[in-house]
Structures are given as C-alpha cells and as structure tokens.
Amino acid sequence: MTRRVLLIEDDPGEQDLIAEVLSLRGCRVDKASTGNEGLRLLERNFYDLVLCDVKLPDLSGLDVLVKAREYDSDLGVIIITAYPSVPSAVSAIQRGAYDYLQKPLNVDHLEHTLDRYFQYYELVRENRRLRMELKKAYSFDSLVGKSQAMQDIFERIRMVADSRATVLITGESGTGKELVARAIHYNSSRRNKPFIKTNCAALPEGLIESELFGHEKGAFTGAYKARKGRFELANGGTLFLDEISEISIGLQAKLLRVLQEREFERVGTAETVKVDVRVIATTNRDLRQEIREGRFREDLYFRLNVVPIHLPPLRERREDIPLLVEHFIQKYAEENGKRIEGISERALELMMQYDWPGNVRELENAIEQAVVLSRGPILGPELFNFLDNVAVGGGYSDFDLSKMTLKELEKVAILKALQDTGGNRTHAARRLGISVRTLRNKLREYRMAGEEEVPQVA
Prior knowledge:
alpha/beta; Rossmann fold; 4 domains; 5-stranded parallel β-sheet; 14 strands; 45% helix
C-alpha cells in the first residue's frame, strides 16, 4: 500500500532531501512551503504522516500540528526544528506530535524515525480496522434506512437473531440480502462461530452436493482427498445459502432432510454426520411461482420460510436515499483519501427521482465512482451521467393514468419495465408477462412511429 505524506517545509534544500528519502520508501509526497498551503491540502486529502517545520513564513508548525490532529486524531505529525530545546520538544509532544527532528537533518536518523513511525502507524490502523469490524459485526451500521419498511426489518432481525429458526430473505438483486443475513448472525449467540457463505448460482451443478455436504477420497474423479462441506464448516454457526432457487430439485430433497434431521452423509460414504447449523437463505425469485412451475419443492419452501424477511426495492423507500448517499460518501471518501463534504442539491434531487433498477448496489457503485472522479468537495450531477435523462417531477410513476388511452398505458408499462430492469429485455418481458419477441416488436413500432425515445439496449 502506498503511504501518502504531507511535507510542509519552506527550505527548498531540506524539502528536496526529505522528499527523496520518502520517495525511496515508496511514499507519495505532497509538498507545501507555507502553513496555510499545508492546511489547504489537509482539508482536501487524507494523509498517513505530516512532517512540518516549526518555523514557517506564515504560521507556527505547532499551530499546524494542532489543526492536523483536529482533522484526524490518529494522524502522526513529526516536527522539524533548527532550534531544539527541551521545552519546545515537550510542547510538541504534549500537543500530539509523534516525534521531532533537528536540522540539519541526519539521513540515518530521519530514516530510523520514519521506520519507527510507520511500524507504529500500522498498529494504529490495524487497531482502528478491528474496532470498525467489531462495530459492524455487532450493529446494523451497514444497513441504512429511516423508512418504516427498514425499521420493521431491523426489529425483525432483533427478534429472530437468537432463535434457531430458518430465515428466508427475499428481494430484488442489490437490495442488501446478504447484509441482513450477516446482521442476524452477528447479533446472535452464534456470532463467534463461523458464518459460511454459499452462492448456489455460482456453483456447477455437478459440484454443489460435494460443496454442501463434503466428500470422501475417491468419491468421484478428482476427489484426491476427503473434504468437509459447507454444512460441517458452519457447525455451531450460520450457513448462508444465497440464491437458493438455483439448486436442482434432486438436491432440494437432500437439503430438506438436513433441515429436518440436522444430519447428512458425505458424498461417497454412508456415515452420518450430525451438525448444529442455522440456515439463512435468499432468493430474488418468486418461490411460489417456482413451485407452481415445478422448479421448487413446496415442502422445502415451508421449511425455509419459517421467518420471512422481504427487502423492498430502493424505489419503494426513496426517503432512505439521502442517508445512503451520505453513508457511501463517507465510506469511499475515507477509502480513497479524499475530503468530500457532500452532494449537490440538484444531484440529490435527480437521485430521488431515479428508479434505481440495481437498487442499493447500483447507488453504492455510483457514489464510489463519483468520489474517485471528483475534483472538488461537492459531488455534482455531472458525475452521474445516468441521471441525464431523469426529469424531476416527470417520471413514469407521475403520469395520471386515468387520462391515458390503453395504448399509452401499454407503452408506459413497457418503458417502465425496461427502466426497472436496467434495459434487460428478457427480464422486462418476463415482468410484463409477454415474450421477448413481442417486446421487440413493440419497441420497433414505437421507433417507427417516432414516438418517445426508447432505450437502445440488448
């Protein structure tokens, strides 16, 4: 990881010497010749270390030290002085300096001080990271929302966390189903036991049984040694089955037995393995519809759906958007070493009107990109190109349906379905209950008629 260092020094020779030593250690160095110039850099960026001369043309280095510590209490500051004395050294340390260096600088002493500081700072960073992880693990910090829907979900998480009940979390992709699963686990008595995630959609059909239940050596080609499955690895903790609807009917029967009996056999052996596992499953599909079409077992559905939690799409809880925006700005500004003060009123207004087909995940990606590309402290609408076509107060949801013809209603429904599915024709057709061919013909009809622009998507 590249360390970022701010060097505030008005002597060009000393500045070049220190910058060269830092660069040889792989540091990225920002240089300032005055205290005010250094403070402006501190306002815009995050640093791992500040080296500051005590005598500057405009400010005292000790004043810069105090201000730097106000910006970041963990930030280390090394004071450089040509007039060392015990009182001045004590004063610097009392105000929060890590150490001080005497001019003319001795390169060996400088390198030794830098090595000591960076070892210390890594411990500080690790301690801070562990504190943050602990905070996230035992709270709902990663789940953001003031809407009644989210408050109801928080309450249900609290109620179900310490039970053994199986939980089925439903909702569109990107709504935060895994975050809810983790919140349940880390707020339960199982928090110190494993949380094992299994993405059912990502596992090949031929390997998913072995992944879940394990196998013995020689059970199949390539099984060179025995291996524990996810159920055994999660023993005492939680097994998170993401996209449960993607597993085959045959494997669903075996999964049902584990949920009922809490036992199974590894592939290639008749030996029974007993486990104590809490199962949390998710899906973005309508499992009742999957049952009607013969793709999902009804008995497994009832076994999984002991405690249902449904996550609404972001377009149905727009009042949470400002909180989420603030949360992600803070997160990615810190990760990228930037000082972002917020988002412009116009950009937020457009975001409130956008339907977010990718839900919270799409919003998070948009904020991360904007933070990375921003050149100033405020995120403006120019950083969110996908909002260009949003007309405030004029979204599809604002039409007065009673004044529209059936043909107009059909067009609005089609355009809205495309918008909600991010332009995916297959998903839009499924949502509308028509074939992709019919949808394609309708879009061609609109274009030929020169009517409202239709998204050019595959």
